[in-house]
Specification:
Number of helices: 16
CATH topology: TIM Barrel
CATH superfamily: Metal-dependent hydrolases
CATH class: Alpha Beta
Distance between the termini: 19 Å
Strand order of the largest sheet: 1-2-3-4
Radius of gyration: 19 Å
Largest sheet: 4 strands, parallel
Number of strands: 8
CATH architecture: Alpha-Beta Barrel
Helix content: 40-55%
Length: 343
């Protein structure tokens, strides 16, 4: 792709709705956190190889293993606030004007922080990033698939206490193949009773039936990934008829083999079918990606046009969980800035 087209993509206003905090930590930050915390690093110090997936990745479980190395450095309030701030910085550098950063607070309680502490520190880091870079940043709080009801109940309850105070939704993530969504109906019934919007990782490492379950039983207002509905008429029709947006993460989906190749990536089919699709990064560091690179790959490999990219960005604004008092302004800003660029 020529440099002029890439520069045009860089100038577009962008939305990133599916962005994992612990998958987007900069290697230099881990190096500094390790020094501050007195924790040793591997002797070879090849940090990026421990944090980023390579082309030999075979599945989602292998992909998720990259998170284990990072998490032991994210057990203090200072560390969480820093990486939250830096994810806003990285988003600003790509022209994002709104992001939803997601994380599982229970994973940051290994050295004394509470779930409430983790939520507050991430909130403070996102807000500091907002003030410095002008990017609106909100948080999605994750329940882990392998965790017990009691542990996830603590997460949902804490998220509810911070809903409207930086938290905009809750999510379910982790090993989809090993822990399908029907195991978690009761915890997301609690989320609904507490008034929390829900997005669910589904149809990534599991089949289209997981997407149907997430929408009909878990109350998902959005679906994380969802690529496995391709060719499954019932699931595609349900997603379209309920206007449930998909949070697609193309580079990650190809890396985890959720989709076998770029040629098979279903985004254009989803758009043609009338599905509300959005494009996001998933994990900036683990996937070695940026929102601009996602757009570049779609233009190169999936037959999309700049007009399609504009539609995806508008979909992102409309699908956001941003509070209603600000959401109309976000949509207006996106529409105005895209129009200024001929989209």
């Amino acid at each position: 792709m020529d440099d002029k087209r890439v520069e045009q993509l860089k100038r577009l206003p962008k939305i990133d709705l599916h962005l994992h905090l612990d998958g987007s930590v900069k290697p230099e930050t881990i190096r500094e956190l390790a020094h501050q915390q007195g924790k040793p690093l591997p002797a070879d110090s090849h940090l990026l190889s421990r944090m980023q997936i390579d082309e030999d990745c075979t599945n989602l479980r292998e992909y998720l293993s990259k998170f284990d190395f990072v998490l032991r450095f994210l057990q203090t309030g200072e560390a969480l606030e820093r990486v939250a701030f830096e994810v806003v910085e990285q988003a600003a550098n790509q022209g994002c004007i709104y992001i939803e950063a997601r994380y599982a607070p229970i994973l940051h309680t290994l050295e004394g922080l509470s779930v409430e502490d983790a939520i507050r520190h991430v909130r403070d880091g996102l807000r500091r990033g907002e003030r410095q870079y002008g990017v609106i940043a909100r948080a999605i709080v994750i329940c882990m698939r392998h965790d017990s009801y009691e542990r996830n109940e603590a997460v949902i309850t804490a998220a509810a206490s911070h809903y409207g105070d930086g938290v905009v939704a809750v999510d379910l993530a982790g090993d989809e193949a090993g822990f399908p969504p029907q195991l978690h109906r009761s915890i997301f019934e609690l989320a609904r009773r507490l008034g929390l919007p829900v997005t669910i990782h589904a149809g990534e490492a599991g089949g289209a039936e997981n997407v149907i379950e997430a929408i009909t039983s878990l109350g998902a207002a959005r679906i994380g990934h969802g690529v496995q509905i391709d060719g499954h008429h019932e699931a595609m029709e349900l997603v379209r008829s309920t206007r449930t947006p998909l949070e697609l993460c193309p580079i990650s989906n190809v890396q985890t083999k959720a989709v076998n190749s770029w040629e098979a990536y279903p985004l254009k089919r989803f758009l043609d079918f009338g599905i509300t699709a959005t494009v996001n990064t998933d994990n900036l560091t683990v996937s070695g990606t940026s929102i601009t690179l996602e757009y570049v790959m779609l233009l190169q490999h999936c037959g999309l046009t700049l007009g399609d990219i504009g539609k995806l960005i508008r979909n992102g604004a409309e699908a956001s969980f941003l509070e209603e008092s600000l959401k109309s302004g976000l949509i207006d800003t996106i529409n105005r800035q895209l129009a200024e660029q001929g989209l």
